[in-house]
Design a protein that fits this description.
The complex is a heterodimer.
Chain A (H helix, E strand, L loop, with lengths): L17 H18 L2 H9 L8 H8 L17 H14 L5 H14 L2 H13 L4 E4 L14 E5 L2 E5 L1 E6 L6 E8 L2 E8 L4 E7 L4 E6 L3 E3 L4 E5 H36 L1 E2 L2 E2 L4 H30 L2 H30 L9 H14 L4 H11 L3
Parallel strand pairs in A: 1-5
Antiparallel strand pairs in A: 2-3, 3-9, 4-8, 5-6, 6-10, 7-8, 11-12
Helix pairs in contact in A: 1-3, 1-4, 4-7, 5-6, 5-7, 7-8, 7-9, 7-10, 8-9, 9-10, 9-11
Chain B lengths: L3 H17 L2 H8 L6 H14 L17 H14 L7 H13 L2 H13 L4 E4 L15 E4 L3 E9 L9 E7 L11 E7 L5 E7 L5 E14 L10 H10 L8 H17 L6 H29 L6 H25 L5 E2 L14 H7 L10 H11 L7
Parallel strand pairs in B: 1-4
Antiparallel strand pairs in B: 2-3, 3-7, 4-5, 6-7
The chains are: A alpha+beta, B alpha+beta.
The structure holds flavin-adenine dinucleotide.
Flavin-adenine dinucleotide (FAD) sits at the interface of chains B and A.
Family (chain B): Belongs to the acyl-CoA dehydrogenase family.
Keywords (chain B): FAD, Flavoprotein, Oxidoreductase
InterPro entries (chain B): Acyl-CoA_Oxase/DH_mid-dom, Acyl-CoA_Oxase/DH_mid-dom_sf, AcylCo_DH-like_C, AcylCo_DH/oxidase_C, AcylCoA_DH/ox_N, AcylCoA_DH/ox_N_sf, AcylCoA_DH/oxidase_NM_dom_sf, Mycobact_Acyl-CoA_DH
Chain lengths: 378, 387
């Protein structure tokens, strides 16, 4: 089964970058159909590196890792929407490499890092030799929970304390952007991964992550990034919006898979998709997809153009709606497959896991309802 | 809801579990972690020694002769306390079927061995092409004068790799006018030559279920249950035999308690949105319990359960899924890590919660999917019959 030969039919408004995006999309689709069939993914995730061999290098070759980064550091002028396009296709193929985490952290270094920090890390990201990850969430990752990680001055530099949990892409990251509090203010550090104590593991959806133990981590003065809380807030919204794009890709893939299965599987002498009750369920899944895709796009646009409060509202709205669609489609994808929906050798359960963990990441439904409520106009 | 005597009985059962089932095992069960087959067997022996391995069985076969309510309280208390499940295949499905349709020899041979745990059974009904439409099964057996010779493939055969026996549905009369009429039930020793058991891995990486291939497997004539070609009728009894316990009220109550514990530790029970969902789940559970008790009272009065049992299966399984989802939600982002490397020493149970959210998806699929249950209810309600 090849999940990656996606034919997306979303109409996109003609904008300046749309031509490049179209070409990029085609190249990525071609790449994924060549190296990322479900079987190739299975072989990759089960290998010691837990990735599809050569995938990261291929992303770099296509220029995906350079998108939006400063040109003087090997980057390529582009829009967040280009990264989102890639994220959506990768969601459909359920790629396990840390593309989104790396791009979010790299963009944060570009936005908030000192020139030296940018020069040190960004060329490597753009060329595919450096992976980056943002280590911000703690504990359950509730949106409103204050961070507890702290930075205190020590001599010229800093001493950190605290823990970061489930940093996406943290298992193989070369550089972490770590958030901490100092005098009640959020500060960011760019830290080579070798300096940090980490526990690396995989998640239920086979993507990698890590917990970081910051206690006793001593950093030189130049680890501090000039930008702070505002840049972080933007990065977190971008991460959320990109995760929505990934989920939209997985939702599309799940709907295709279910229709294919129920169209071919026969019980009681009829194909499953001839039972009206199942037809209605698949119609609801199709509606969920149609609802999710445009609101995810709006969130990406808001990240690029809107003022912080509007951006936050758009992103929270997307997280709630895409989350609802993800839940419905992920669960029905398993149910309508019957037993096949649970096996490791078939994509349905993997899509359930990807969509289920999307719900758990970047703040859950309640968090975003609350954030939206606080910003809602009367 | 319960009488004083019934409450006292529940207390007695609770004390027995705590004394005879090691805490480590109960913690694993509550944490949705796998227990070993040795741990399950040890618990089976403890129950058997107390005469409680099959309380729902008639006393003449080694059951307790308890009332329906007592049997229900017993099962739910075990579940609440985290006692391992002994498995339904022998005790709940095949046992009662043999009592009703088995030969005297079959009863004498198999029932005591089910009761003691000496035999462990699996259920060979489903096939690749026969899931919801079970009657379309293709595995077939021909009689050669002394033996039934079985060929074909079963699928989703849970615990086949730990079981030593299988009760299976096989086609014995391909020319029967209706597919349901040409099926027999065979008792198959899994040590017989020609049987190949292959694992099916679920996404959680665990082997719970299997494919089983039959290549000229010879099953002695005396291992056919009841009469030839009547297996379909018997299978309806097998599938109907778990009615009251399938809603897993006790399990749901245990999960609700765990949810509250985890959510409270994180201050989530004070978060209005989350709290409201926990409250809704508790109210749903209360409603289901009341429904189950109503069914028990009818059972006490000697009435057979009707479609309320199908309804209870639907709602009980949905509630199991809601609670599993809420448990994963309570962990937030910490629900994601999985596998040996991911075990957080401070919360070893956390890595199992998303897994159990996933595992619980099966409860609306097996035992007759919820769609099939709804079809049965619709038919029983006479919907569309007036045409
Ligand atoms: C973990 C696991 C363990 C199992 N253990 C056992 C076991 O030990 N022994 C055994 O014999 N079997 C076992 N099963 C099999 C189980 O009983 C079947 O999976 C179940 O009967 C559904 O069949 P199916 O998987 O072929 O799905 P299908 O029958 O292909 O159904 C797919 C979907 O279509 C729906 N559907 C089908 N027909 C209709 C209809 N007419 N109207 C509306 N909707 C319909 C179903 O509800 C389902 O949502 C197990 C399954 C699993 C996943």
């Amino acid at each position: 089964m090849n999940l990656s030969t996606t034919q997306l039919d979303t109409a996109r408004p003609a904008d300046e970058g749309s031509e490049i995006r179209g070409l990029l999309r085609q190249s990525l689709e071609t790449l994924l159909s060549r190296i990322y069939s479900f079987e190739q993914r299975s072989a990759g995730r089960a290998s010691p590196g837990r990735e599809v061999e050569g995938a990261w290098e291929a992303y770099a070759e296509l220029g995906l890792l350079a998108l939006t980064l400063p040109e003087e550091h090997g980057g390529f002028a582009a829009e967040l929407a280009d990264i989102a396009m890639a994220a959506e296709l990768m969601g459909g193929s359920m790629t396990v490499e840390p593309y989104r985490p790396t791009m979010v952290a790299a963009r944060l270094i570009a936005a908030a890092g000192a020139p030296d920090q940018q020069a040190r890390w960004l060329p490597g990201v753009a060329s595919g030799t450096v992976r980056a990850a943002l280590a911000h969430e703690e504990g359950s990752g509730r949106l409103a929970a204050p961070i507890a990680a702290a930075a205190v001055r020590e001599g010229e530099g800093w001493r950190l304390s605290g823990r970061k949990t489930v940093a996406a892409g943290g298992d193989n990251a070369d550089v972490f952007v770590i958030s901490a509090l100092t005098d009640g203010e959020t500060v960011l550090f760019a830290v080579p991964a070798g300096a940090v104590k980490r526990r690396a593991y995989r998640c239920f959806d086979w993507t990698g992550a890590a917990d970081l133990d910051l206690d006793g981590l001593v950093l030189p003065a130049d680890a501090l990034m000039p930008g702070g809380g505002d840049a972080l807030a933007r990065a977190l919204d971008e991460a959320t919006a990109l995760a929505c794009a990934d989920a939209v890709g997985a939702i599309r893939a799940a709907n295709r898979l279910v229709r294919e299965h129920t169209g071919t599987r026969k019980q009681f002498g009829r194909s499953l998709d001839s039972f009206q009750v199942l037809q209605h369920r698949m119609v609801d899944m199709a509606i969920a997809e149609e609802l999710a895709a445009p609101i995810a796009e709006s969130a990406i646009k808001a990240c690029e153009l809107a003022a912080p409060a509007d951006r936050a509202r758009a992103v929270s709205a997307a997280k709630v709606k895409v989350g609802d669609s993800a839940r419905l489609v992920g669960q029905e994808c398993v149910q309508l497959h019957g037993g096949m929906g649970l096996t490791q050798e078939y994509p349905a359960s993997h899509l359930f896991a990807r969509l289920g963990l999307f719900e758990r990441a970047h703040g859950d439904r309640d968090d975003h309802i609350e954030r939206y409520a606080a910003l809602m106009s009367r | 809801m319960y009488t004083e005597e019934e409450e006292a009985f529940a207390a007695e059962v609770r004390a027995f579990v705590r004394e005879n089932c090691p805490e480590t095992v109960r913690e694993k069960v509550i944490g949705a972690m796998r227990i070993t087959s040795d741990e399950r067997r040890a618990w089976h022996r403890a129950l058997h020694a107390r005469g409680w391995a099959a309380p729902h069985w008639p006393a003449e076969y080694g059951g307790t002769g308890w009332s329906a309510v007592q049997t229900y309280i017993f099962a739910e208390t075990l579940s609440e306390e985290g006692a391992p499940d002994l498995g339904s295949f022998g005790l709940k499905m095949l046992g009662p079927t043999l009592m009703r349709y088995g030969s005297d020899e079959q009863k004498a041979r198999y029932l005591p061995r089910i009761l003691s745990g000496e035999d462990y059974w699996c259920q060979g009904f489903s096939e690749p092409g026969a899931g919801s439409d079970l009657a379309s099964l293709k595995t077939h057996a021909e009689f050669d004068g002394t033996h039934w010779v079985v060929n074909g493939q079963k699928m989703w055969t849970t615990m086949a790799h730990e079981a030593n026996m299988m009760f299976a549905l096989v086609r014995t009369d391909p020319s029967a006018p209706k597919p349901q009429m040409g099926i027999s039930m065979l008792l198959i020793d899994l040590a017989t030559p020609g049987i190949d058991i292959r694992p099916i891995l679920l996404l959680n990486g665990e082997r719970t279920t299997n494919e089983v291939f039959f290549d000229n497997v010879r099953v002695p004539a005396e291992n056919l249950v009841g009469e030839p070609h009547k297996g379909w009728t018997y299978s309806r009894v097998v599938l109907g035999n778990e009615r009251l316990s399938i809603a897993r009220i006790g399990l749901n109550r245990r999960q609700l308690a765990k949810l509250k514990r985890i959510a409270d530790a994180d201050g989530l029970l004070d978060a209005p949105l989350f709290r409201a969902r926990v409250v809704a789940a508790e109210i749903e559970l209360t409603a289901l319990e009341a429904m189950a008790v109503g069914m028990l009272e009818r059972a006490r009065a000697g009435l057979a359960p009707g479609i309320e049992a199908n309804m209870l299966k639907i709602k009980g399984s949905e509630l199991q899924q809601t609670l599993a989802q809420l448990l994963a939600e309570a962990l937030g982002r910490r629900a994601a890590p999985y596998g040996a490397d991911a075990i957080d020493p401070e919360r070893p149970w956390a890595a199992a919660l998303f897994k159990s959210h996933f595992d619980t998806r099966v409860v609306t699929i097996y035992g007759g999917s919820n769609e099939i249950q709804r079809n049965i209810i619709a038919k029983t309600l006479g919907l569309g019959a007036a045409r």
